[in-house]
Write a structure and sequence with these properties.
The protein is an alpha/beta fold and 203 residues long. It has one domain: Nucleotidyltransferase, domain 5. 41% of the residues lie in helices and 17% in strands. Strands 1-4-3-2-5-6 form a 6-stranded mixed β-sheet. The radius of gyration is 16 Å and the shape is globular. The mean pLDDT is 95.
Length: 203
Protein backbone atom coordinates (compact mmCIF):
# COMPACT_ATOMS: atom_id res chain seq x y z
CA UNK A 1 0.00 0.00 0.00
CA UNK A 2 1.23 3.48 -0.93
CA UNK A 3 -0.44 6.61 0.45
CA UNK A 4 0.00 10.13 -0.92
CA UNK A 5 -1.38 13.08 1.06
CA UNK A 6 -2.21 16.24 -0.92
CA UNK A 7 -3.25 19.62 0.45
CA UNK A 8 -6.36 21.11 -1.17
CA UNK A 9 -6.36 19.33 -4.54
CA UNK A 10 -5.03 16.42 -6.56
CA UNK A 11 -1.92 16.99 -8.65
CA UNK A 12 -2.52 16.84 -12.39
CA UNK A 13 -2.27 13.28 -13.65
CA UNK A 14 -2.28 11.74 -10.18
CA UNK A 15 -5.07 9.32 -11.08
CA UNK A 16 -5.93 7.70 -14.37
CA UNK A 17 -8.37 4.99 -15.29
CA UNK A 18 -12.02 4.46 -15.95
CA UNK A 19 -12.95 3.29 -12.44
CA UNK A 20 -11.96 5.22 -9.29
CA UNK A 21 -12.84 4.33 -5.69
CA UNK A 22 -13.87 7.37 -3.64
CA UNK A 23 -14.64 8.03 0.03
CA UNK A 24 -14.87 11.08 2.28
CA UNK A 25 -14.14 11.96 5.89
CA UNK A 26 -15.95 14.81 7.63
CA UNK A 27 -16.40 16.36 11.05
CA UNK A 28 -19.73 14.56 11.39
CA UNK A 29 -22.72 13.26 9.45
CA UNK A 30 -24.63 16.51 8.81
CA UNK A 31 -23.41 18.08 5.53
CA UNK A 32 -24.80 21.52 6.47
CA UNK A 33 -23.00 21.56 9.82
CA UNK A 34 -20.04 19.19 9.57
CA UNK A 35 -17.41 20.20 7.06
CA UNK A 36 -15.70 17.99 4.51
CA UNK A 37 -12.12 17.26 5.64
CA UNK A 38 -10.69 14.55 3.39
CA UNK A 39 -11.46 12.92 0.06
CA UNK A 40 -9.62 9.67 -0.55
CA UNK A 41 -9.29 7.98 -3.94
CA UNK A 42 -7.74 4.88 -5.48
CA UNK A 43 -7.60 3.39 -8.96
CA UNK A 44 -7.49 -0.09 -7.44
CA UNK A 45 -3.73 -0.40 -7.85
CA UNK A 46 -2.75 -0.36 -4.17
CA UNK A 47 -2.11 3.40 -4.24
CA UNK A 48 -4.32 5.80 -2.28
CA UNK A 49 -4.47 9.57 -2.68
CA UNK A 50 -5.76 11.61 0.27
CA UNK A 51 -6.84 15.20 -0.43
CA UNK A 52 -7.02 17.17 2.82
CA UNK A 53 -9.00 20.42 3.07
CA UNK A 54 -8.58 23.36 5.41
CA UNK A 55 -11.85 25.01 6.50
CA UNK A 56 -13.61 26.91 3.69
CA UNK A 57 -10.95 26.04 1.10
CA UNK A 58 -12.70 23.89 -1.49
CA UNK A 59 -11.31 25.19 -4.76
CA UNK A 60 -10.06 21.87 -6.14
CA UNK A 61 -10.34 21.96 -9.94
CA UNK A 62 -8.38 18.76 -10.68
CA UNK A 63 -10.32 16.72 -8.14
CA UNK A 64 -13.62 18.27 -9.21
CA UNK A 65 -13.01 17.45 -12.87
CA UNK A 66 -12.27 13.84 -12.01
CA UNK A 67 -15.38 13.45 -9.86
CA UNK A 68 -17.59 15.05 -12.52
CA UNK A 69 -16.09 13.13 -15.46
CA UNK A 70 -18.87 11.05 -17.09
CA UNK A 71 -16.24 8.67 -18.47
CA UNK A 72 -15.05 7.71 -14.95
CA UNK A 73 -17.11 5.36 -12.80
CA UNK A 74 -16.92 6.38 -9.14
CA UNK A 75 -17.07 3.51 -6.61
CA UNK A 76 -18.42 4.23 -3.12
CA UNK A 77 -19.48 2.38 -0.02
CA UNK A 78 -22.62 4.11 1.27
CA UNK A 79 -22.34 6.57 -1.60
CA UNK A 80 -25.42 8.47 -0.49
CA UNK A 81 -23.40 10.31 2.16
CA UNK A 82 -20.22 10.84 0.16
CA UNK A 83 -22.06 12.07 -2.93
CA UNK A 84 -23.98 14.58 -0.80
CA UNK A 85 -20.79 15.85 0.87
CA UNK A 86 -19.03 16.24 -2.49
CA UNK A 87 -22.07 18.00 -3.95
CA UNK A 88 -22.36 20.39 -1.00
CA UNK A 89 -18.68 21.32 -0.62
CA UNK A 90 -17.20 20.91 -4.09
CA UNK A 91 -20.32 21.73 -6.11
CA UNK A 92 -19.89 18.53 -8.13
CA UNK A 93 -22.55 15.96 -8.98
CA UNK A 94 -20.87 12.57 -9.20
CA UNK A 95 -22.03 10.46 -12.15
CA UNK A 96 -21.83 7.58 -12.95
CA UNK A 97 -21.60 5.90 -9.56
CA UNK A 98 -21.60 2.46 -7.96
CA UNK A 99 -22.30 1.73 -4.29
CA UNK A 100 -21.06 -1.50 -2.72
CA UNK A 101 -23.48 -1.11 0.20
CA UNK A 102 -26.50 -1.00 -2.13
CA UNK A 103 -25.07 -3.88 -4.17
CA UNK A 104 -24.63 -5.92 -0.99
CA UNK A 105 -28.17 -5.20 0.23
CA UNK A 106 -29.57 -6.38 -3.10
CA UNK A 107 -27.31 -9.41 -3.55
CA UNK A 108 -26.71 -10.61 0.04
CA UNK A 109 -30.28 -10.88 1.34
CA UNK A 110 -29.21 -13.74 3.64
CA UNK A 111 -27.55 -11.26 6.04
CA UNK A 112 -28.11 -7.84 7.56
CA UNK A 113 -24.37 -7.14 7.76
CA UNK A 114 -23.49 -4.80 4.89
CA UNK A 115 -20.78 -2.60 6.40
CA UNK A 116 -17.44 -2.26 4.62
CA UNK A 117 -15.68 -4.26 7.32
CA UNK A 118 -18.23 -7.06 6.89
CA UNK A 119 -17.89 -7.10 3.10
CA UNK A 120 -14.10 -7.14 3.18
CA UNK A 121 -14.12 -10.02 5.64
CA UNK A 122 -16.89 -12.07 3.99
CA UNK A 123 -16.03 -11.56 0.32
CA UNK A 124 -12.26 -10.94 0.33
CA UNK A 125 -11.02 -12.54 3.55
CA UNK A 126 -9.52 -9.18 4.57
CA UNK A 127 -9.88 -7.77 8.09
CA UNK A 128 -9.88 -3.97 8.15
CA UNK A 129 -10.01 -1.78 11.24
CA UNK A 130 -12.59 0.95 11.86
CA UNK A 131 -11.01 2.37 15.03
CA UNK A 132 -10.29 5.79 13.43
CA UNK A 133 -13.82 6.26 12.10
CA UNK A 134 -14.73 8.80 14.78
CA UNK A 135 -11.36 10.54 15.09
CA UNK A 136 -10.77 14.26 14.51
CA UNK A 137 -10.51 14.54 10.71
CA UNK A 138 -10.26 18.33 10.94
CA UNK A 139 -6.91 18.25 12.76
CA UNK A 140 -4.06 20.18 11.08
CA UNK A 141 -2.25 16.94 10.22
CA UNK A 142 -3.46 13.40 9.61
CA UNK A 143 -1.91 10.77 11.84
CA UNK A 144 -0.47 7.61 10.33
CA UNK A 145 -3.40 5.68 11.81
CA UNK A 146 -5.87 8.05 10.13
CA UNK A 147 -4.08 7.72 6.80
CA UNK A 148 -4.17 3.92 6.98
CA UNK A 149 -7.84 3.95 7.93
CA UNK A 150 -8.77 6.35 5.12
CA UNK A 151 -6.82 4.28 2.59
CA UNK A 152 -8.53 1.05 3.66
CA UNK A 153 -11.90 2.62 2.82
CA UNK A 154 -11.03 2.75 -0.90
CA UNK A 155 -8.33 0.15 -1.56
CA UNK A 156 -10.74 -2.80 -1.67
CA UNK A 157 -13.76 -1.33 -3.48
CA UNK A 158 -12.70 -2.53 -6.94
CA UNK A 159 -12.43 -6.13 -5.76
CA UNK A 160 -15.70 -5.87 -3.85
CA UNK A 161 -17.44 -4.57 -6.95
CA UNK A 162 -16.25 -7.60 -8.93
CA UNK A 163 -17.51 -10.02 -6.28
CA UNK A 164 -20.84 -8.25 -5.85
CA UNK A 165 -21.41 -7.94 -9.60
CA UNK A 166 -21.09 -11.71 -9.89
CA UNK A 167 -23.67 -12.20 -7.13
CA UNK A 168 -26.06 -9.65 -8.62
CA UNK A 169 -25.83 -11.34 -12.02
CA UNK A 170 -26.39 -14.77 -10.45
CA UNK A 171 -29.56 -13.54 -8.70
CA UNK A 172 -30.85 -11.61 -11.73
CA UNK A 173 -30.63 -8.22 -10.00
CA UNK A 174 -27.97 -6.40 -12.02
CA UNK A 175 -30.46 -4.10 -13.78
CA UNK A 176 -32.21 -3.31 -10.50
CA UNK A 177 -28.87 -2.43 -8.91
CA UNK A 178 -27.95 -0.18 -11.84
CA UNK A 179 -31.24 1.69 -11.50
CA UNK A 180 -30.48 2.28 -7.82
CA UNK A 181 -26.97 3.52 -8.61
CA UNK A 182 -28.36 5.91 -11.24
CA UNK A 183 -30.77 7.35 -8.64
CA UNK A 184 -28.11 7.87 -5.95
CA UNK A 185 -27.13 11.46 -6.95
CA UNK A 186 -30.83 12.41 -6.78
CA UNK A 187 -31.17 10.70 -3.38
CA UNK A 188 -28.19 12.73 -2.15
CA UNK A 189 -29.73 15.93 -3.51
CA UNK A 190 -32.97 15.16 -1.64
CA UNK A 191 -30.91 14.80 1.55
CA UNK A 192 -29.31 18.19 1.00
CA UNK A 193 -32.62 19.90 0.22
CA UNK A 194 -34.44 18.72 3.32
CA UNK A 195 -35.82 15.23 2.69
CA UNK A 196 -33.20 13.09 4.48
CA UNK A 197 -35.61 10.74 6.28
CA UNK A 198 -39.03 11.28 4.72
CA UNK A 199 -40.05 8.59 2.19
CA UNK A 200 -41.49 10.56 -0.72
CA UNK A 201 -42.69 7.28 -2.26
CA UNK A 202 -44.86 6.41 0.77
CA UNK A 203 -48.65 6.80 0.63
Amino acid sequence: MTIHVHEGDLPEGALAGGVIAVDTEAMGLNPHRDRLCVVQLSAGDGVCHLVRFEPATYDAPVLSRLLADPAVLKLFHFGRFDIAMIRHYLGVTCRPVYCTKIASRLARTFTDRHGLKDLCRDLLGVDITKTQQTSDWGAPQLTEAQQLYAASDVLYLHRLRDALDAMLAREGRSDLAQSCFDFLPTRAELDLRGWPDFDIFAH
